[in-house]
Amino acid sequence: MRAYRLQDLGSPSALRRQEEDPPQPGHGQALVKVHARSINFRDLLIQQQRYAVPARPSVVPLSDGAGEVVEVGPGVTGLRVGDRVTACYFPKWQAGSLEMPMALDQFGCTRDGMLADYVVAEAAALVPAPEHLSFEQACTLPCAALTAWSALTGGRPIAPGQTVLTIGTGGVALFAVQFAKLFGARVVALTSGAHKAARLRTLGADEVIDRQLHPQWASEVRRLTHGAGVDHVVETGAIDSLPQSLAACAANAEVALVAALGQGSLDASALRGLVTIRRVFVGSRAAYEAMHRAITQHRLEPVIDRAFAFDEAHLAYQHFAEQRHVGKVVIADR
């Protein structure tokens, strides 16, 4: 089979393609023919040796993929050959709280991921792909979509009419816009550039702020909310944008902190209004299944920026790293 592996982590040429034998499913496992996979920011961090969890040497990268079951091992129930599936980001996190042993088991980091023709996974780690989605669309769900879902559902419930602030046009931010509208929320979206602003409006964002025109955008958020501020923030902009996110919050608001990768510092005076900051770590299988039901019921479709062929994996990584994408970057089985 075709497979890419990460060699010499930290090098721009770490991604190496090779031919190897397909893996074989063991007890309780299934073999999946991967038809599409998507890139997340954590995949760049792993390649650059900046991720919190050390990668296994020569690991097959990427956590997110969608495909079909082609073989099941002994003891597998609930899965059949031909089933269309995606894999959970944390294969062992079924429900409840995330514990350290679960966090240390991740596709594309501590175990082989999706940038290959085939992957082996425990049956409990595989979730049916929504029937109305293609493989290219379904492969965007395990990390970005579930992170956005957990950011909006894992803390205080969103009441219809409340206001949600999203930051940027990456996968998590765009899914957050779509999910927030499903819950009846008003969305204020932050971005840069007219093209990205227009795309956010087509997804349902009620207000879009161009941070190039409004560098101190927290003031603009407050103006658009008549001084009240927002009730929920999906903070994908790193620690650098967190002070302004907090300044944009209403009293008793909640900030779901998806990433904290910047070099800025946070002044304690920014913590006004009894704001709750909650760290989000993707989500469990149970959360994934709840999200699956919502996506299926509303026939929600992920936003794909561009799909590359398998042989163009290096170009896909480069395109993602340039941060000009709007939506998900996909590597398809073409």
Automatic annotation (TrEMBL):
Domain of life assignment: Bacteria
Protein's organism: Roseateles paludis
Name of this chain's protein: NAD(P)-dependent alcohol dehydrogenase
PANTHER family assigned to the protein according to its UniProt record, in alphabetical order: PTHR45033, ZINC-TYPE ALCOHOL DEHYDROGENASE-LIKE PROTEIN C1773.06C
InterPro entries: ADH-like_C, ADH-like_N, ER, GroES-like_sf, NAD(P)-bd_dom_sf, Zinc_ADH-like
Enoyl reductase (ER) domain segment(s): 10-331
Lineage of the organism: Bacteria, Pseudomonadati, Pseudomonadota, Betaproteobacteria, Burkholderiales
Chain intervals for the UniProt region annotation (Disordered): 1-28
